[in-house]
Write a structure and sequence with these properties.
This protein is an alpha+beta fold. The protein folds into three domains: about 190 residues, Phosphoenolpyruvate Carboxykinase, domain 1, CATH 3.40.449; about 280 residues, Phosphoenolpyruvate Carboxykinase, domain 3 (Alpha-Beta Complex); about 80 residues, Beta Complex (Phosphoenolpyruvate Carboxykinase, domain 2). Strands 1, 4, 5, 6, 7, 8, 9, 10 and 11 form a nine-stranded mixed β-sheet that branches. Strands 12, 13, 14, 15, 16, 17, 25, 26 and 29 form a nine-stranded mixed β-sheet that branches. Helix 2 packs antiparallel against helix 4, helix 11 packs across helix 16 and helix 15 runs antiparallel to helix 16. The site of manganese (II) ion (MN) has 3 residues, from loops.
Length: about 600
C-alpha cells in the first residue's frame, strides 16, 4: 500500500510501474521488521549471505556481477537541455533521447518481480537543509544499502507532505548488461535514471548521483555547495574543536583522514579527532558569515582493502555490526570476511570475490580492489556528537589533496580564497579502482569533483569564486599530498595517523600561531614546524623517515611546476570562455613565479 497521498510521488511511481511492469510494489517504511524480512528474502535467493551472528551481528555478504564492480564514468551522462551547459568534463545526452532510451531498456524489466519504493532524505530529516528523494529499484541490496546510507521511510514522506521538491530516482538492474549500462542525471528535472548496474555509486542514487551531481547544480542556483569532501573535528586538550573539510579523489584517503587516530604523543596530551562525514559535504554560509558543513549521508560506503586495525581502526570497528560487505573474500567455514591489508592471516579454504575457491599462497588477490563495506555512521567509535546537527559544523579550513607521486609537496597554503580556488581547480591525481578504466593515470580532478559536477565545470569554478565574495569569515585553503614516492616507488611520508602532524600545522595557521615561508606556489611550513615528536614507527615502507626526508617533500621543484603549468593551461583551454578570469590570472601568476 502506498505510504503517501502526495500526487507527485504517486504519479512518479505509477509511471515507473507502467514502464517496468512489476508484479508487486513494496513501499519501504523504514521499520527494522521490514528490513529484516528483506534481508531474509535476499538470503533465500542467494543475493546476500548472512554472516556469523556472534562475530559480525547483523552483517551480510554480497557479490556484484563480475562486470559491475565500480562507477562507470564513461557511461554517466548529464542530460541538460542544452549541450553547452554540461561542459567539457561531462558526457552529454539530450534529455528526451535519454529518457526514451532508458525507458526502452526498462520496459517490462520487472515482470515477475517486486518494485521497491524508497522514500529517503539526504541530511537529518528534521534539518532545514535536508532534501528528499524517492528511489525506485528492483534490488533488495539497494534497499538495505540505502537504509544504511540514508534516512529512509515514512518520516521522509510525512515531512514532504504534498510537496513536489524531491528527486525522482529510477533504478533497474535489467540484465546487468555493461553495454547498456547508463547512469543518467537530469539536473533540470531533479531526476536520475540508472539501468543495468547493481553496484555502489551507480545505484545508491542518494549518494553520487543526487548528493553530488544533482545537489551541486541545486547549490549553484540556491547559493550553497555540494562537495566530495570528508568533514572532521580536531579536539584540543582544552576541549575546543576546530572543523575542516577535505576533498580527495575517490580512493585517495577521505575515509582514512576522517577517522584518523592521532599519534600516541598527541593522544597522551588529550588531542582527539571526531568524524562528521567521510565522503560528501553540503556547505552553506551561516548567519555569522562562516561556512557550515553538513554530512548528508548516514553511513560509510568505504574501500575495504587496506582497512586494518593499524591503518584505520575506527573504520574497521564501524563494520563489526549491521554492515554489508561487497566483493571481499568470504570464508564459508566461519561466516566471516577478509580483504588484502586487513591482517597477515588470510583464511584458508575461502572464496574470492568472484565466488571461486581461493588460495592466498598463489599471489592472486582475494578481494576486488574496489570491494567495499557499507556501515552505519553511528557505529563509528569517533563519530562526532554534532554529526547530525541540523545546521552543520563551522569550518576553519578546506583541504584539497590528490594522489601524486611527484610535484605536489606535503602541504602548502593558498595566499587567499581565489588562489585557493585555483589550487582546487588544478588538482591532479592518479586514477584508482573506484571507477572502471585504467588505474594510475594522472588526470586533472578539480576539487575531486571531476566525475560529480552536475553542470559546466567553468560555471562550477565561478560558483566557488562567487561564494568567496559572500563569505565574510572565510576558512583558509590548503593542499596536501600524502602520496609522494621516492625513485623506487616507496611512499616518502608515513601518512595515516601521522597526517595529524600536518593537520596541526594547518590549524595553527588558521589561528595565526605559526609562521610560514612564502614560496612560488603559496605558503609552506618550515620543516621544524611540522612536529615529528614521538614518530613511533620512525620507518616508512622499510625506510627511515627523518627531517631530511621531510625537507625533501617541502620543496618546490620549479621544473616540475613549469611542466604542470603547461598542463594546467591545456586543461583550462578545454574549459573555454566560462573559465573565471580570476583563475586565468592565478595561472599567469604561477607561470611567472616558476619561470626560472
Ligand atoms: P572513496 O570512498 O572512493 O571516495 O575513497 P576515500 O577517499 O574515502 O579513500 P580511503 O580513505 O578509503 O583510502 C583509499 C586508499 O588510500 C586505501 O587503500 C588507503 O589505505 C590509502 N590511504 C589512505 N590514506 C593514506 C595515507 O595517508 N597514506 C597512504 N600511503 N595511503 C593512504
Ligand atoms: C567514490 O567512488 O568516490 C565512492 C564510491 O565514494 S561510489 O559510491 O561508488 O561512488
Ligand atoms: Mn567518494
Amino acid at each position: 500500500m502506498a505510504l503517501t497521498t502526495n500526487k507527485a510521488v504517486l504519479e512518479f511511481v505509477d509511471k515507473a510501474v507502467k514502464i517496468a511492469c512489476p508484479d508487486k510494489v513494496l513501499w519501504i517504511d523504514g521499520s527494522q521488521e521490514q528490513l529484516d524480512a528483506l534481508y531474509a528474502e535476499a538470503c533465500t535467493t542467494g543475493e546476500m549471505i548472512k554472516l556469523n551472528e556472534e562475530k559480525l551481528p547483523g552483517c551480510y555478504y554480497h557479490r556484484s556481477a563480475l562486470n559491475d564492480v565500480a562507477r562507470v564514468e564513461g557511461r554517466t551522462f548529464i542530460c541538460t537541455r542544452e549541450e553547452k551547459d554540461c561542459g567539457p568534463t561531462n558526457n552529454w545526452m539530450e534529455p528526451q533521447k535519454a529518457y526514451k532510451m532508458a525507458e526502452d531498456i526498462l520496459a517490462g524489466s520487472m515482470k515477475g518481480r517486486t518494485m521497491y519504493v524508497i522514500p529517503f532524505s539526504m541530511g537529518p530529516v528534521a534539518s532545514n537543509f535536508a532534501k528528499a528523494g524517492i528511489e525506485i529499484t528492483d534490488s533488495i541490496y539497494v534497499v538495505v544499502s540505502m537504509a544504511i546510507m540514508t534516512r529512509v521511510g515514512q518520516a521522509v514522506l510525512d515531512k514532504l507532505g504534498d510537496g513536489t521538491d524531491f528527486v525522482r530516482g529510477f533504478h533497474g538492474k535489467c540484465e546487468l548488461d555493461d553495454e547498456k549500462r547508463y547512469i543518467l542525471q537530469f539536473p533540470e528535472d531533479n531526476a536520475i535514471w540508472s539501468v543495468n548496474s547493481g553496484y555502489g555509486g551507480n545505484v545508491l542514487l542518494g549518494k553520487k548521483c543526487f548528493a553530488l551531481r544533482i545537489a551541486s547544480f541545486q547549490g549553484k542556483n540556491e547559493g550553497w555547495m555540494a562537495e566530495h569532501m570528508l568533514i572532521l573535528g580536531i579536539e584540543y586538550p582544552d576541549g575546543s574543536i576546530k572543523y575542516v573539510t577535505g576533498a580527495f579523489p575517490s580512493a585517495c584517503g577521505k575515509t582514512n583522514l576522517a577517522m584518523l587516530i592521532p599519534p600516541k604523543s598527541y593522544l597522551e596530551k588529550g588531542y582527539k579527532v571526531w568524524t562528521v562525514g567521510d565522503d560528501i559535504a553540503w556547505i552553506r554560509i551561516g548567519a555569522d558569515g562562516r561556512l557550515y558543513a553538513v554530512n548528508p549521508e548516514k553511513g560509510f560506503f568505504g574501500v575495504a582493502p587496506g582497512t586494518s586495525v593499524k591503518s584505520n581502526k575506527n573504520a574497521l570497528e564501524s563494520t563489526r555490526k549491521n554492515s554489508i560487505f561487497t566483493n571481499v573474500v568470504y570464508n564459508p567455514n566461519d561466516g566471516t570476511v577478509w580483504w588484502e591489508g586487513m591482517d597477515k592471516n588470510p583464511p584458508t579454504n575461502a572464496l574470492n570475490w568472484k565466488g571461486e575457491p581461493w588460495d592466498p599462497s598463489k599471489g592472486e588477490k582475494g578481494a576486488h580492489p574496489n570491494s567495499r563495506f557499507t556501515a552505519p555512521a553511528e557505529n563509528c567509535p569517533c563519530i562526532s556528537k554534532f554529526w547530525e546537527d541540523p545546521d552543520g559544523v563551522p569550518l576553519s579550513a578546506i583541504i584539497f589533496g590528490g594522489r601524486r607521486a611527484k610535484t605536489a609537496p606535503l602541504v602548502y597554503q593558498a595566499r587567499d580564497w581565489d588562489h585557493g580556488v585555483f589550487i582546487g581547480s588544478i588538482m591532479a591525481s592518479e586514477t584508482t579502482a573506484a571507477a572502471a578504466g585504467a588505474v594510475g593515470v594522472v588526470r586533472r580532478d578539480p576539487m575531486a569533483m571531476r566525475p560529480f559536477i552536475g553542470y559546466h565545470v567553468g560555471d562550477y569554478f565561478q560558483h566557488w569564486i562567487d561564494m568567496g565574495k559572500k563569505i565574510t569569515n572565510k576558512p583558509l585553503i590548503f593542499n596536501v599530498n600524502w602520496f609522494r614516492l621516492d625513485e623506487e616507488g616507496h611512499f616518502l611520508w608515513p601518512g595515516f595517523g601521522d597526517n595529524f602532524r600536518v593537520l596541526e600545522w594547518i590549524i595553527k595557521r588558521c589561528e595565526g600561531k605559526v609562521d610560514a615561508r612564502e614560496t612560488e606556489i603559496g605558503y609552506m611550513p618550515y620543516a621544524e614546524d611540522i612536529n615529528l615528536e614521538g614518530l613511533d614507527y620512525n620507518i616508512c615502507e622499510g625506510k627511515k623517515f627523518d627531517k631530511t626526508v621531510l625537507e625533501s617533500i617541502l620543496t618546490v621543484d620549479k621544473e616540475a611546476w613549469r611542466q604542470d603549468a603547461d598542463s594546467i593551461a591545456e586543461f583550462y583551454a578545454t574549459v573555454g570562455d566560462r573559465l573565471p578570469k580570476e583563475l586565468a590570472n592565478e595561472l599567469e601568476t604561477l607561470k611567472k613565479n616558476v619561470a626560472q
